[in-house]
Amino acid sequence: MHKFWLVFKHVYLKNIKSGSWIFMVVFPVLLIMLAVGVGYLASGMENNTKVAVVSDTPIQMKIPDVKVENTTAAKADKLLKSEKVEGVLEIKMTPEVSGKLTMQDDAPDSLKINVTQALSTLKLQVTAAKLKLAPKDVAELVTPATLTSNSVKVDDGKIVTKDESAAALNRILAVTITVVIMIVTMIYGSLVAQEIATEKGTRIMEILLSAVSAKTQFYAKVFAVMGLLLTQVAIYALAIAVAVPFLKQIKMVKQVLEMVDLSALLGVVPLMALLFLLVGTFTYAVLAALAGSLVSSVEQVQMAVMPLSMLGLVGYFLSLTAQAGDSWFVSVASYIPFLNISVMPVRVALNQASFAEGWISLGVAVVFMVLFTMLVAKVYKSNVLVYSDSGLLKGFKRSLQIMKAEKNQK
Amino acid sequence: MLKIENLTKSFGNMTAVDAVNFEVQSGEIMGLIGQNGAGKTTTFRMILDFLTPNQGQIFWNGQPLKGQDMSFIGYLPEERGLYPKMRLQDQISYFAQLHGMTKKEVNEVLPEWFERFEVKGKLRDKVKDLSKGNQQKVQLIAALIFHPKLIILDEPFSGLDPVNAGLLEDGIQMLKAEGSAIIFSSHDMGNVQALSDHLVMLRQGKVVLDGTVSQIRDSYGKTKIFLQSPLTKEELEATEGVLKVVEHDHQMELTLAAEEVGQEIFKMATANGYITEFRQEPPTLDEIFRLKVGEVDA
Description:
Chain A is an alpha/beta fold.
C-alpha cells in the first residue's frame, strides 16, 4: 500500500504541476469569464443609447433601455450630426400619435423595437384618455391572455409532465455533456497513455517494476489520473460557489436566473452525467494504459493514443446524432461500452431515454469498467516487457503469448 | 545470499534459460557472461519476478524470493532511461523512496553520491540537460543509493569511458565491502576479470562455465606461450603439440594442445642460451569466451 501511494503521489504531483494540466483547468474558466465580460460590456453599451426627442406637444417620453433628451428640432439635428445621440425621434400627437425615427446606421437593432413599444404605450394612453377609460379598464384591456405551457413525454402509455425551462436547460446540458465528456476522456486518456508510454519507452518501467509490482503501478497510475479529474471538478465547484454571489449582481445573469430554474442543475440528469463522466474517464484511462503499455518507444505514443481518439470520436458523433433525433442505432450505442458514456447521458437529457434506461446503461458501464480494468491489470505486466517494432497489435499478440506462458506456471 | 536452483524458462518452443544453477554470496561479485540471447536478461528478469520460471526456484537467504518485498534489490537495466523533464533530485528521490528510503534521507546523502561519481550537474538540473555519460551516472546512483543487499547490473559498463568505468568499479567495490551480493553482466572480459570474484557463462540458456576467474583459466591448462627467441614461425609450427602460431613483431604467440608441450618448446628455444621472453599461461578469459561460444552442441 505504501508503494501504491508513492506511485500515486508521483503521478498526481507531476501532472498537477505541469503546464498542460493547469492550462486545461484554467482555460474554460477564462473562456467563461471572457464570455460573461463581453456580455456585460455589451449590455452596458446598450444602456448608453441616447435619443433626442422632438415633440409638437410637451410630453414625458419613456423608452426602455434608452436615455431620452427632450429638445428642439434644430438642436436635435446638431446632436445627431455631432454623434452625441444615436437617433432623433419626432413625435406628432395630432391627428393621431405617430413618430419618425432617424437613426445612425450603427445604432443597436433593439432601438427600433423599443421606440415602437414606447410609441404604442403612448398611443394607448392617449386613446384611453379620449375614450375616457378608467386606468383599471386600460389595465384590463392590455393584459394578455394567460398561456401556461408544459412539454410532455409519453412513457409507456403514461403522460409525464416536464417543466419547459428544465427541458431547455437539459438541451443545453446535453450539448455540454457531449463536448465535456469527449474532451475530458481524451485529455485524461492521453495523459495516462503518455505517462506509461514514456516510462516504457525510456525503460524507466523496468526500474519501477523491480520495486513495485506491475499491478500496483497500474492501479496507482489510473487512480492518480482519476484524482486529477476529481481535483478539477472540485476546483470548478469551488469556483462556482465563490463566483455565484458576485455573478448574481450582474444584470444579465439575473435575467437568465429569472428565466431558468437552476434547481434543475441539481437534478438527476446532471448527476447521471457526472457519474457517466467519472466512469467513462476511468474506462478510457484504463484503455489508455493498455495502449500505452504496448508501445516500444516514446515516438510511438501517438500510435497509442489513436484507438482512444477513434472511440472518443465515434461516441462524440453518435451523441451529436442523438441530439438531432432518436434512432435505433443511437439507442443500441447507448448501451455499448465506451460509446454509452457519451451517448446515454445525452439521450436521457433529451428525454429519448428514461431514467431507468440511463441507470441500466450506467450499470453496464460500471460492470464493464470493473471487468476491463481487471483484465488490463493482468495483461499490463506482460505488455510492459514486450518490445516490438512491428506495431501495437503484434506486440499485443506476443504479450498475450507471454501471459499464457506465465499463467501455466501459476 | 542468492541461490538459483535448476532455473528454466521457455517461451513456446524456445528454451531461453535451461536448468541454470548458481550462487552469489553476500560480499561477492559475480560476473554473468554470454552472447546476446544467451539468457542473461531472462535470468535477471526471473530473479526480479518480471517472469515466472517454468521450473526451479530462486532463494534469498534460504527463503524463496517470490512474494518477498523486493525493496532490497537494486537494478540497473541494460537500456537506460530517466524522466527527461524531472529534476535529478526528484528522480533519484522517487526511486529511492520506492526502495524504502525517506525523502529526507535521500536529500542528506545525495550530494555525497554526486561527488563520488563526479556527476557534472546540479541536483536541481533536469535530466535532458545532462550529457549521456552523466545521465548514466545518475541512473547508477538511483540504483545504488539505498544500499541494496542484492544488486543486479545489466551491462553497466556499456557506453562508459575508462574514467567513468573506473568510478563505477569503485562504486561496486564499495557496496561489496558493505556486504552486498552483486551480479553484473558484461561483454568486456577485461571488466569481468578485474571485478568478478566468480563468474558464470551462459550459452543457449545453459551454464557452460562456473567458478572463479583463475579456476576457470587454470582448468584450461597453461596452453598459451609468449616467446621471443631465435626460433622461426615455421620451426615452431613443425613442433608436435603446437596448434597455432601467431607472429606479433618479434613475439610469437603459441597455442598448445597440452601444457606439457611447453617444456619441449623451452628446451628448443634455449638451446643456444639466453632468450628475452618465455611466458606460459592459461588462455585469457576472452579466448575462453570465444572458445565456448564456438563450441557446437554435443
